[in-house]
Design a protein that fits this description.
- With 388 residues, the chain is of the alpha+beta class.
- The chain folds into two domains: 3-221 and 310-386, Nucleoside diphosphate kinase-like domain (Alpha-Beta Plaits); 227-302, no CATH class.
- The chain has 15 helices and ten strands.
- The strands form three sheets. It has a four-stranded antiparallel sheet with strand order 2-3-1-6, sandwiched between helices.
- β4 and β5 (135-139) form a beta hairpin.
- α2 (20-31) crosses α5 (99-107) and α10 packs across α11 (264-291).
- The longest helix has 28 residues, at 264-291.
Amino acid sequence: MAEELSYAIVTPYSIRKSRTGGIIARLISRTGLDLVATRMIAPSRELVEKYAESIVTDPEPRHRAIQELIRAYVLKNFMPSEDGTRQRVMLLVFKGEDAVAKIRGTAGHIVNERTSGETIRDTYGDYIADSTGTVTYFEPGVLAPPDPLSAETNLRLWASYSDTDGGMLDQTVAFPPGSNVEKTLVLIKPDNFRFPNARPGGVIDLFSRTGLYIIAFKVHRMSVSQAEEFYGPVLEVLMDKLKDRSAEQARTLLEKEFNLNFSPDTVRRLGELLGPINGRENWEQIVKFMAGLKPSECPPDQRNLPGSEKCIAICYQGIDAVRKIREVLGPTDPSKAPPGSIRREFGQTIMVNAAHASDSAENARREMAIINIAENNLKPLVEGWYSR
């Protein structure tokens, strides 16, 4: 069976209720599909109207009635408010065999929800009708295409507006005057993507405890040059930090092997010699973990190409965003992280520790610029896929 592209749109209500992590966890783990692109979009009136027009396609009366319900929902809930404030939606694009049917099945039925929580709509959706059958409340949680043709039509449509309506949505949320509003960066690291699983969504779900707002969201593959720049400040720290450890390890091995005793000055000189070597090797391992290759092993013509490792880059906005995110993340060493923190729940080692978060607003700006978090990698993916 040939591979397909499909999508899921996380609704404004699901985003406001911080259900994004749970939805992503189910979409990845229950479909086994590859999450290949994401984009935060604040739909314009024009996009909403065109998307609504494309929804009702089924000639069968029962299915058509559901599609008309969805169209009415979109026109009401995706449309900019009267004061011009736009809603935030998240478009998730998946690739794989039978992708459209798998996403649709994981999203679930609009009307016939089960109470077991098997589908996304079982848990996050609502469909309430009165005794006459009139729908009094409806929230689908996510929207997904019913067939491959609809998937192509709507992906092309959303991609065509993804530059003008998407990217860094830092003007969509209002804050009280004088608030310490910050933006900070989170990277969901490659160790969460070794195979399709719920971990990426689980990490995002824990970050939702901060009450912050997701305003940018991107699937990203770091190049070696990006990883070098991103982790550049870490290199000098490691080279200095590992002097004492390297010296002590070398002293122990050499004294045992040659039956010698080293003076404190000799041990110090060993540290000065070996610390930079050990520090650089540890730093190269970090770059490899994030980009797939060590800098010393990367051919020059591949340094700026997207790496083999995938992560998710998220920009959170809100009051004291940097502090709140780092408190939920926990310290670098998972064994020292408090219960309930992300690194305690999902981390394994100092390097394989689930997520990165900026340690200051200034570093957040630097890091977001390096990975170009507002970059639109959705549009070229969709256009390239359907022009084959």
